[in-house]
Amino acid sequence: MSKPGSAAKVKLNSYDDLFGSAGVQADTGQVQEIPLSELHDFKGHPFKVLDDEKMQETVESIKNYGVLMPGIVRTRAEGGYEIIAGHRRKHGCELAGLSTMPVFVKEYSDDEATVIMVECIRIKT
Fold it and tell me: pTM for this one?
C-alpha cells in the first residue's frame, strides 16, 4: 500500500472558483487595478522574467491594447500583494510606463498558490 503524499492535502479550486461562473455578470468588480509598487514576487518563484524579444513584444502589446489578461495575486500579511500569476505582465507594465496592473485578488494557502502558479505556466505553453 502506498503512502499518501503531500499533494493529497492540496485542494484545487475549479475554474469557476478562480474566475467566476458563466452566470456572473461581466462587471462584478472582481478585477482590481493595483499599483505596481504593491505587487511583490511570489516567494521562491522558480521562473525567470527576461528582458528578451518576447518581453519587448509583451511591452508593445501592453502599450497598444493594455493588459488583456489580469494577473492573479493574494494578500500579504506584511502589506501589498504577492503575485501568483503575472510576473511577466508586471514587468511589461513597468517597461511600458504604467503605474497599475489589473489583477484578481484571491486568498490561497501556500500549497494552493504554488499549484495555481505552476498550472498557469503549464497552460501557457
Answer: 0.71
Of 11, 13, 4, 27, the closest CA to residue 106 belongs to 13
- List of residues 6+ apart from 100 with CB closer than 8 A: 33, 34, 35, 36, 93
Could you give the CA distance from residue 30 to residue 21 in angstroms, rounded to a whole number?
12
pLDDT in tens, the chain (125 residues): 555 555 556 666 665 565 554 433 333 448 999 999 999 998 877 778 889 999 999 999 999 999 999 999 999 999 999 999 999 999 999 999 999 999 999 989 989 998 888 887 766 64
The residue behind cell 498557469 is: 120
